[in-house]
TrEMBL record:
Residues 16-337 form the Enoyl reductase (ER) domain. PROSITE patterns: QOR_ZETA_CRYSTAL (PS01162). It comes from the Bacteria. This is Zinc-type alcohol dehydrogenase-like protein. It comes from Stenotrophomonas oahuensis.
Length: 341
């Protein structure tokens, strides 16, 4: 089968950083696995991070890619939720071969039914960032998706135009929050508003006076999706007593978790959406349930795809361009690729 592989850790401007290769197709699925014919993928920062990770000379070529949509070709004996021919979308498992290949084996418990109102590319934009935003807000931070208690509360989303931020804005608004997103360019600010942000402020400028100008003295919850270290002190200042902060970016150094975090009893929550699959947690099926619920919300018109830029078919040259754009730090929404040459 056709696949895009990584053989060595190289800068993305090196043509050998990602290569087209014919590799053996996966075998028939066993256990909870599905065999999926991959029709579209999207690209996330984790792809670039995994590509840059050191590799030994003896390591076999690796298939990256952790966002896909496609059609089920075969199911393992323990699968009950899917059948051949079903259209699906998923993020998969970072410890297994990824989706940058024509066929992939993936655990059905992390797979959802594809939204019927989206094409494969728009659907592929959703899984990883949707699971990250949903799990962070509603599993880790214990907020409520449908709960009137959030009416009048403020959610601050730092890095609102990125993939996770684009979905966090939508979910936060649906949950009843007044959503304030940050963006530093007119195009990214416009995107945040299109995703449903009530207000957009500039994260390159001091945040407190911009919030004060909106009549906001404190925020009830904050997602720092951009730079954990850079905004740590100001979030301690901005968060209300008993507020919550959600994080996805590993800090570069130690974080001081004493006052004001201690004095205000601010809770700190980490999210890594591959944790359930990586450790085989007892609630692994929750990712299947989340993706199915999100598909229903998309089909009902309550959520929308975060696909922004289509980069052509799935091949090494287009994936290198996707990685290059991701590493530039200027991507809005999600980058997608669909079909095979």
């Amino acid at each position: 089968m056709k696949a895009v592989v990584q053989e060595r850790a190289l800068p993305i401007d090196d043509p050998a950083s990602l290569s087209d290769m014919n590799v053996p197709a996966p075998g028939q699925p066993t256990g909870h696995d599905l065999l999926v014919r991959v029709l579209a993928v999207s690209v996330n920062p984790v792809d670039a991070k995994q590509r840059r990770a050191p590799r030994t000379d003896e390591a076999p070529p690796r298939i990256l890619g952790f966002d896909a949509s496609g059609v089920v070709e075969a199911v393992g004996p323990d699968v009950t939720a899917f059948a051949p021919g079903d259209e699906v979308y998923y993020a998969g498992d970072v410890t297994r071969p990824g989706c940058n290949a024509q066929w992939q084996l993936v655990d059905a418990r992390v797979v959802g039914r594809k939204p019927t109102t989206l094409d494969f590319a728009d659907a592929a934009a959703l899984p990883l960032t949707t699971l990250t935003a949903w799990e962070l807000l509603f599993d880790r931070m214990c907020l409520r998706f449908d709960d009137s208690r959030h009416r009048g509360q403020v959610l601050l989303v730092i890095g609102g135009a990125g993939g996770v931020g684009s979905m966090a804005i939508q979910l936060g608004r649906h949950a009843g929050f007044t959503v304030v997103a940050t963006a530093s360019r007119p195009a990214s600010a416009d995107w945040c508003r299109a995703m449903g942000a009530h207000h957009v402020i500039d994260h390159r400028q001091p945040l407190p006076p911009q919030l004060q100008a909106l009549g906001i003295a404190a925020v009830d919850a904050a997602l720092n999706l951009a730079d954990t270290d850079a905004y740590w002190e100001v979030l301690g200042e901005l968060l209300a007593p008993q507020g919550r902060v959600g994080l996805i970016v590993e800090p570069r150094g130690p974080l001081r978790i004493g006052d004001p975090y201690k004095a205000k009893c601010i809770s700190i929550h980490w999210e890594f959406m591959f944790a359930r699959a990586r450790f085989g947690t007892a609630d692994l099926i929750e990712q299947h349930r989340i993706l199915n619920r999100v598909a229903s919300l998309v089909d009902a018109g309550e959520l929308r795809s975060t696909a922004h830029t289509a980069l052509g078919t799935i091949n090494a040259a287009n994936l290198r361009e996707a990685h290059r754009q991701l590493e530039s730090g200027s991507v809005i929404g999600k980058l997608t690729l669909a079909g095979w040459d």
